[in-house]
Amino acid sequence: MTAPFPVGPQLVSRIDEVLSRIDSAATQAGRDGAGITVLLATKTRTPQQIAAVIEVLRERGRTIAVGENRAQEMAKHEDPLLAGNGVPRHFIGRLQTNKARDVVAFAELIHSVDRDDIAEALERRAEMAGLHREVLVQVNTSGEESKGGYDPTPEAVIPVVQRLRGSQVLRPVGLMTIGANTSDDAAVRASLRSLRELRDEVRERLGLDDFEQLSMGMSGDLEIAVEEGATIVRVGSAIFGPRPA
Ligand SMILES: *Cc1c(COP(=O)(O)O)cnc(C)c1O
């Protein structure tokens, strides 16, 4: 198959670099790197750029997903270069209730249920559209005020998971966090580890075998995330290059 777009050597080497970072961290932790989903955080990238990366990741045999963090960027995935490519679409950004309908239509997994009114809006819209969607509960593990999410305690997270479990259309499958924004690796590790511990506790207390996803780790902290049990890493700039300012 010939690519309808150029896959430059620089892009290929950035992708391989990310995959080798994932694989070494996985090996370190006694895990299989190929089992970790690489979610491309596509932000403002063009359909051409996104399609090129998808092609390389597919050649490498990776489990992939694309993730948008802004509702207004979702339409670009209807571009002929991307539409119908079979790559699961996720939503990873801060949600607004007035965008719930569009997000439900777009994403099969929504990472960012960070407050009760969002859970309600997604449920209502999924019911109206007749769609079943998986969701993650976003947890604020860093204590940074700019970040959304429930407090990192079972008392805060269990009620929302239970509420979602009661839904006919939404299925909670795990937790998501944005790690501490610091160069202090120990602080990053503590925040990411707390997500895993919280998932384990929720899973055990509620007896949920299928509550297993841990969406954590970005370009700067993906090794730590993989070592701490990430099942989905969300990567943007390490693959696409620095974002235009
Ligand atoms: C942009 C984004 C990422 C990826 O960030 P990079 O540092 O570019 O890898 C991950 N998660 C969320 C929620 C994002 O918005």
From TrEMBL:
Annotated positions of the N6-(pyridoxal phosphate)lysine modification: 43
CDD domains from the UniProt entry: PLPDE_III_YBL036c_like
Assigned keywords, A-Z: Pyridoxal phosphate
Ranges of residues in domain Alanine racemase N-terminal: 92-244
InterPro entries: Ala_racemase_N, PLP-binding_barrel, PyrdxlP_homeostasis
The organism's place on the tree of life at top rank: Bacteria
Family, similarity comment: Belongs to the pyridoxal phosphate-binding protein YggS/PROSC family.
Record HAMAP family: PLP_homeostasis
PANTHER family assigned: PROLINE SYNTHETASE CO-TRANSCRIBED BACTERIAL HOMOLOG PROTEIN, PYRIDOXAL PHOSPHATE HOMEOSTASIS PROTEIN
Function: Pyridoxal 5'-phosphate (PLP)-binding protein, which is involved in PLP homeostasis.
Protein name as catalogued: Pyridoxal phosphate homeostasis protein
UniProt source species: Brachybacterium epidermidis
